[in-house]
Amino acid sequence: MITVLRVDDRLLHGQVAVSWVGFLKADVILIANDEVICDTTMQTAFRLACPPGVTLSMKSLDGAVNVINNPKHAPRRILVLTKTMNDAEYVISKTGEAVKTVLLGGLRSGDGKKQIDMNSYMSSGDIQIMNQLESRGLELYMQAVPSSKKLTSEEIRTVYNR
User: Fold this and answer.
1) CB-side exposure of 41: number of CA atoms within 13 Å?
2) Burial of 112 (0-12, 13-18, 19+ CB in 10 A)
3) With a threshold of 0.85, does the pTM exceed it?
């Protein structure tokens, strides 16, 4: 079972490893990213960041889709991490109804992006993807850690359109 798909450009870091894994009771962290599978330095850093007792799986986007679609993983509590909204949309589009909730985390600033909260910025393309995913019935929200304020997709749109 997919507990949540988190979009966070840092992928696995302290907030995810300490706060979200425990809060979600995840026993697997599945990093879905085409670059990570070729970068041994990033792989080492992510292995070090992974909490004890939690399985870490680093896959390409298509590899992650295969894991999610494999029925043998259904009893697991999987936290999926993608780097971008585009990657999240790709994984979701290939996995049927496996993903029901998308948690938007740390999204760095960049050209054409607007600040949504303290550490997250979104582009018009990100908002479009959020809207598309929401229209498919997915729940989307932004939250840094479980104890911080949760922004609904409507609140995200309001802040973006200011």
Assistant:
1) 0
2) exposed
3) yes
